[in-house]
Automatic annotation (TrEMBL):
<dbReference type="InterPro" id="IPR019734">
    <property type="entry name" value="TPR_rpt"/>
</dbReference>
<dbReference type="InterPro" id="IPR043376">
    <property type="entry name" value="NPG1-like"/>
</dbReference>
<protein>
    <recommendedName>
        <fullName>Protein NPGR1</fullName>
    </recommendedName>
</protein>
<dbReference type="InterPro" id="IPR011990">
    <property type="entry name" value="TPR-like_helical_dom_sf"/>
</dbReference>
<feature type="region of interest" description="Disordered">
    <location>
        <begin position="14"/>
        <end position="38"/>
    </location>
</feature>
<dbReference type="Pfam" id="PF13432">
    <property type="entry name" value="TPR_16"/>
</dbReference>
Length: 710
C-alpha cells in the first residue's frame, strides 16, 4: 500500500492576497469583468493572444506574467487542456537563471531596510517569481489531471531545482511573510513524490521524499510529519530498495542499512513527536510502526513504544492486550500473562469484559502445564463471553479448554483426578472439532496430540492425516508429530519415510529438527553408524549458519533455538557412544554440550551415566542430584537416581520407590519408570504387584514413541 501525502490539498480557487502582487490586482476596474463570459469555453490560439494582449495593456504585465494569470484562470475553471496550452507558452528554461538570481539576491540579509535599498536593478521581484512558480505548479497539476504523470513530475521538479539552486542551505526564516514563494515550494515538495508514484517510478519518489527532508525548508510540523510518514510507507510497502546517496551516507550505528530500517527510524521519530504532542495522534503511524517492527522481530522495541503512548489513546484493557501480544511475540509469555491477568482482573469488572484478553490468556496458559488450572478458568470465561457476543470464537475457547484439561491431567497427583481431566480434555476438543473443525486445522492438531499423549494412536494417526490434508503438507508441526505417532505404532521404516518426505517440503531451519528426528529413528533401529553420519551433517550445517544467526540480533529467538539444537545433537551423540562403550568419545560430546549450556539437566544426567558405567556410584549419584537440582521435574534423572539407589541395598528401596512414583506422577506413560518400580516391588517380595508393573511397562513400551509427544 502506497500512501500519498495526507497533508493539505492544493487549493487554487483563490488568488494570492498580497496587495502588491501583480496576480491580485482588481480585474473589475480594468474593464475585464465584462469579458469573463468569453472564457467559459476553451480558447484557441487567437483568443489566447487577444486576452493576453488585454492583460498586458491593462495591468502592465510582461508576456510570461500575463500567461501565468490566464493559465491560472483556465485551471480554476477546470479547462486543463486550455490551461496547459497557455502555460506551454512560458519558456521557463530561459527564465530559470533570472528566477534563481532573484531568489538568491532578494533573500540575502533579510533585514529591515529603507524602500530605496530594496530596489535591485534588472532583478525580478519576488512576486513575479512566485507567480511564475505557481504557473509551473499549475502546469504540473494540469498534466496530472490529464494523465501525464511523468511529464507532470518533470515540471514539478523544475520548481524544486530552481529554489534549491538559489537556496542551497535551505529556506531562510521569514521568507513567506511577504510573498508566496515558500507556499508554492512546499506544495511542490509534497506533490513531486506523489507524481512519481503515480508514474510508477518509486525510486524517484523515494529520492524526492529524501530531498524534502535533508535540508531546512521551513516545513510546518504537520507537513514535515506527512513527508516522513509517506516516505516510511513507500519504503515499507513499495517493494523497492533505494540506496542512500553518497552525500547522505554517514558511518555510524544509527545509519540505516536498508529501506526497512530507514522506515523504522522515521516512524520512531514520528512516534516520539506524538508522545511529546508536537503533532496530532495518528493511528496509521502506530499501525505502520507495529508492522515494521513485527516483520523485523523487534517486539520488545514495539512494546516500549506502546508504553509511551499517552493515556486515553487506548482503553486500559486494550493497551494491556496490545502489550501482551508484543511481549508474547518477544518470547516473554510470563510477562504477557501478567498483563492479561490485569486486563481480566476483578478491578475491571465495572467495564465491559475485553474478550480477546480472556482468549489470549487461555491460549498462553495452554502452553504451560503449571498454568493449566488458571487456563481452565480463562477458557471457561471466554466460552461464556463467546456465547453472548462472539459465537464464532466458541470453538477456540473449547479448544483451549480441552488443551488446558489435558495439561492439568499431566501434572495431576491423583489418578482419579487425572482420569477425569483426560476425559474432559477429549470431550471439549471433540466438541471444538464438531463446531468448526472443517475450518480450523489447529483444532484437529490439538485433538491428535491429546490422543497421542493418551496413547489413542489410531485416532491420533487419523487426526494427523486429516490435519496434513487441510494444511496441504505445509505445517512443520504436523510433519514432526506424524512420524512420532507412527513410531509409537512400531512402524519405524514408515516413520523414516515420512521424515524423508518432510525434508523435501520443509524450510532450511525446520529441516534441522527433522534431520535430528531421522537420526533418532536410526538409533532406534540399531543403526548407530548411519545416525552418527546424520549428526555429522547436522553439526556442519549448524556451524555454517551460526555466524549468520549471531549477527541477526533481531532474530535472537531463532538463534537460541539453533543453539539448543546443537546442544541436543552433542547429547544424542554422547548417548550413542556410551551405548557403544566408547566412553572417552561420549565424555567429549558431553563436554561440548556443556560448553553451550553448562546447567543442562540432560548433560549432568549423561555425566552420571558415564560415571556409573565406571562403577563410580557415589559420584554418579551426585551428578544425578545436580541434574535434579537444575530441574526437579526431570523424569530421566529421577529414574536413573532410583536405579542407582537399588544398588545400595534394601535400605534404599523406600527412597527409590518414592523417586519412581514421582517420575510416574510427571510422566504416567514412562515404561522405564514402571519397569524399575516392578524391580522395587520384586525386591520387597510383592511379586504380584511386580508382575502388574512389569506388564504395564511392557504394554507402554510397545506404544512408546522415539521422542516424547509435545
Amino acid at each position: 500500500m502506497l500512501c500519498a501525502c495526507s497533508g493539505e490539498q492544493f487549493k487554487f480557487e483563490e488568488a494570492p492576497q498580497s496587495p502588491e502582487s501583480l496576480a491580485t490586482r482588481d480585474f473589475s476596474a480594468s474593464g475585464l469583468s465584462s469579458r469573463t463570459g468569453d472564457w467559459e469555453s476553451k480558447f484557441d490560439e487567437t483568443q489566447v493572444e487577444d486576452v493576453e494582449s488585454t492583460l498586458k495593456e491593462t495591468l502592465s504585465l510582461n508576456y510570461e506574467e500575463a500567461r501565468a494569470l490566464l493559465g491560472r484562470l483556465e485551471y480554476q475553471r477546470g479547462n486543463f487542456d486550455a490551461a496547459l496550452k497557455v502555460f506551454e507558452g512560458i519558456d521557463i528554461r530561459d527564465l530559470a537563471p533570472r528566477m534563481i538570481r532573484a531568489i538568491a539576491e532578494r533573500t540575502k540579509q533579510r533585514k529591515p531596510r529603507s524602500k530605496g535599498d530594496n530596489v535591485l536593478p534588472n532583478v525580478m521581484s519576488m512576486h513575479s517569481v512566485s507567480l511564475l512558480l505557481e504557473a509551473i505548479l499549475l502546469k504540473s497539476k494540469s498534466l496530472e489531471e490529464l494523465g501525464g504523470y511523468t511529464e507532470a513530475a518533470k515540471e514539478c521538479r523544475i520548481i524544486v531545482d530552481i529554489v534549491e539552486s538559489a537556496l542551497p542551505k535551505g529556506m531562510p526564516e521569514g521568507i513567506g511573510e511577504d510573498c508566496k514563494l515558500q507556499e508554492m515550494f512546499h506544495k511542490a515538495l509534497g506533490l513531486l513524490p506523489n507524481l512519481w508514484i503515480k508514474a510508477g517510478f518509486l525510486d524517484e519518489a523515494v529520492t524526492a521524499y529524501r530531498w524534502a527532508l535533508v535540508k531546512p525548508w521551513n516545513l510546518e510540523p504537520w507537513r514535515l510529519a506527512c513527508v516522513q510518514k509517506d516516505l516510511a510507507t513507500t519504503l515499507l510497502y513499495g517493494g523497492v530498495e533505494v540506496n542512500l546517496p553518497s552525500q547522505l551516507q554517514v558511518n555510524g550505528l544509527t545509519t540505516p542499512m536498508s529501506g526497512t530500517e530507514e522506515a523504522i527510524l522515521l516512524l520512531l521519530i514520528l512516534s516520539g513527536k506524538m508522545a511529546l504532542e508536537e503533532i496530532d495522534w495518528d493511528p496509521e503511524i502506530m499501525d505502520h510502526l507495529t508492522y515494521s517492527l513485527s516483520i523485523t522481530g523487534m517486539f520488545e522495541s514495539l512494546a516500549n513504544n506502546v508504553e509511551k503512548v499517552l493515556p486515553g489513546v487506548y482503553d486500559r484493557a486494550e493497551r494491556w492486550y496490545f502489550l501482551a501480544l508484543c511481549y508474547s511475540a518477544a518470547g516473554q509469555n510470563e510477562v504477557a500473562l501478567n498483563l492479561l491477568r490485569k486486563a481480566c482482573a476483578s478491578s475491571e469488572a465495572k467495564h465491559r469484559p475485553y474478550f480477546p484478553s480472556f482468549l489470549f490468556a487461555a491460549k498462553l496458559c495452554s502452553l504451560y502445564p503449571n498454568h493449566a488450572h488458571e487456563g481452565i478458568k480463562f477458557s471457561q470465561e471466554a466460552i461464556d463471553l463467546a456465547k453472548h457476543q462472539n459465537e464464532h470464537f466458541l470453538g477456540q475457547g473449547q479448544k483451549f479448554l480441552g488443551t488446558c484439561y489435558g495439561a492439568a491431567a499431566r501434572i495431576s497427583v491423583l489418578d482419579s483426578e487425572r482420569i477425569i481431566f483426560q476425559r474432559e480434555s477429549l470431550k471439549f476438543l471433540n466438541a471444538a472439532v464438531a463446531l468448526n473443525g472443517n475450518n480450523d486445522p489447529e483444532v484437529i492438531f490439538s485433538l491428535g496430540l491429546e490422543n497421542a499423549i493418551q496413547r489413542n494412536l489410531n485416532a491420533a494417526y487419523d487426526n494427523l492425516i486429516m490435519y496434513s490434508d487441510m494444511m496441504a503438507g505445509s505445517s512443520i508441526r504436523g510433519w514432526q508429530l506424524l512420524p512420532l505417532i507412527v513410531s509409537a505404532q512400531q512402524r519405524f521404516k514408515d516413520a523414516e519415510t515420512i521424515v524423508d518426505f518432510a525434508l523435501d517440503e520443509a524450510g532450511s531451519v525446520d529441516q534441522l529438527q527433522l534431520l535430528r528426528l531421522k537420526a533418532i529413528l536410526q538409533i532406534t533401529q540399531k543403526q548407530p553408524k548411519q545416525a552418527i553420519e546424520i549428526y555429522r551433517i547436522l553439526l556442519a550445517v549448524i556451524e555454517s549458519q551460526k555466524e549468520h544467526w549471531l549477527q541477526a540480533k533481531a532474530f535472537w529467538h531463532e538463534a537460541l533455538t539453533q543453539q539448543k539444537l546443537e546442544m541436543e545433537v552433542w547429547q544424542d551423540l554422547a548417548t550413542i557412544y556410551a551405548d557403544l562403550s566408547s566412553f572417552l568419545d561420549a565424555k567429549a560430546c558431553v563436554d561440548k554440550a556443556q560448553l553451550i549450556e553448562f546447567f543442562s539437566p540432560r548433560s549432568w544426567h549423561l555425566t552420571g551415566l558415564l560415571l556409573e558405567s565406571r562403577t563410580l556410584h557415589k559420584e554418579a549419584l551426585v551428578s544425578f542430584l545436580v541434574s535434579l537440582s537444575i530441574e526437579p521435574d526431570y523424569p530421566p534423572g529421577i529414574i536413573s537416581a532410583a536405579k542407582l539407589l537399588l544398588k545400595f541395598g534394601m535400605q534404599s528401596l523406600p527412597i527409590a520407590r518414592s523417586f519412581l512414583m514421582n517420575a510416574l506422577r510427571l510422566d504416567p506413560t514412562n515404561h522405564d519408570a514402571w519397569f524399575n518400580l516392578g524391580r522395587v516391588s520384586k525386591m520387597e517380595g510383592s511379586l504380584q504387584q511386580a508382575a502388574d508393573f512389569f506388564q504395564a511397562a511392557s504394554e507402554l513400551k510397545l506404544s512408546a514413541p522415539v521422542q516424547k509427544f509435545e
